[in-house]
């Protein structure tokens, strides 16, 4: 496939290698993504036809699928970090952008499900920013 990426969870127990190209990059504001991330949105990359190889920690992975939906998450049972979900039935790997250790050559293409975003998720571009923890 020619596009090789590596990534890991926060504690480093789960490490992976993904061979495939990211075709979509969405920032999803749906209530499910907000709950699983604890933040305003999830930043998910979509790699149709990609293959994932777990280099370590596959035995530490937990999987959650919301019945009656396509919503699923794979996460490290040690640190709780979201890691890629291999949706084999859909021939798709969904990769949380934050778990990648390599750069990607695609930028976010859209904010999606903004109709259900949190009421506090407005005007965040106007909030002061700091390179580190403010004093």
TrEMBL record:
Family affiliation: Belongs to the Gfa family.
Protein name, entry field: Glutathione-dependent formaldehyde-activating enzyme
Keywords: Lyase, Metal-binding, Zinc
Recorded GO MF terms: carbon-sulfur lyase activity; metal ion binding
A Pfam family recorded for this sequence: GFA
Domain CENP-V/GFA: 5-121
The keyword NADP is assigned to this record: no
